[in-house]
Design a protein that fits this description.
Distance between the termini: 47 Å
Largest sheet: 3 strands, mixed
Mean pLDDT: 94
Number of strands: 3
Helix content: 55-70%
Length: about 425
Amino acid sequence: MLSSEFTRNYMELYLRLQRLQWENYADGASHDLNIVDADIYQLLRIDVCPDGFTEREQTVYSAIVSRGLVDKHPEVARLRNQLDDWDYYLSGLEQISDRQEKRVQMSAKMRPDVVRLLQLRDELARSVGFPSYVDLVLSSEDLERDTVVREVTEYLTDHLPRAKKLAAEHGLRWSTWFTDLATIAGPGDYPAPAELAIRLFRSIGLPDAVKRLTLVCKDQRISGYTGIVKPGVDVRVLLGSPGSLEGVRTLCHELGHALAHLYNEANGLLQTWTASYDESMAVLFEQIGIRCILSEPELQTARDISLLENVRCAISFLFELDLWQQPERAEELYLKHYGLIGIPIPDPVVWASDSFRSIDPVYIHNYLIGAIVAERLIDRLPASTKDIGPWLVDRLYKDGRQRSLYRKLADIEGCVAE
């Protein structure tokens, strides 16, 4: 198969998957995404003649193929989808009324399947030439394992004391961590999402973004989702009502995803994206947006919540690295790592029902990379707010995957201050 034929076929399937996922979330559809995943898997198994690929396209192609041959492998897909169906594991537990106890029992039932999925992913990663699945994922993301581990560890060391203090001050409990954070944020009186988006885009010099984006606001089970039906052409954002400080943060985060794809001018495989880039653009714009919308007291609360979330992400990633090495010690490792936050950690078997261990493995570090990228870039943004949008488009968005995330950072940090 020629490279041009592969690119056309792959991008058609890749974007079909994005559209069907959007329809499942936003329209209540029930598309079976496994069908498209299976088609992608079969396509990736075909040898491609590299003629016609640039050097960067060849790198991206290799990353897509090696990652896809593992993640879209039929047995991996079957186990992953089974673990995504909590009703399957809750069967027989209907008599348990206590919510936490039901979660514990469900997690215990999931544990063997999660461990098997860990092992299977590792085996398949080695079959495509990588030491481990972790190494495969990080390589496909243009990341170096040592650099990621160092940055995550340094962030945790620097911010853990403050996180422990905040957790104690707010009486955070492990079993209700996320609802407790929402309580810290509290309610708020904010305009509708579309109005906030219009104000924000105008203030940063991208007034055309509102007309080009599709914003859908409705009550749904997820806080926010960005659908990339066609980069540069059809990008959609699904949101609930902002109604709270957390709602504003979610709005800004999803708009960050959306802008990066809306202004992607690349072609072919370079229209695709890595999770590290995608989450970094979302977190960076989240930090930009909340500075434009929130008052100073609200901004400090948002920063405290972000710090708590980032520390948990750092701990989660380091736990996951150990878990891949020693899954038989999962509960012991869970207590060791999460215990750092300084609050009691009951029922460590719940690790098995964490979606970042099965549905989105080796992903959680991307939120923290985003926080680190935001820290590196926030002071390099143009002094005039109205110049920020065009700066983001030119320096980060428009060339898509032509440059890796860290290449883009290096290019920015190597520029003479303007």
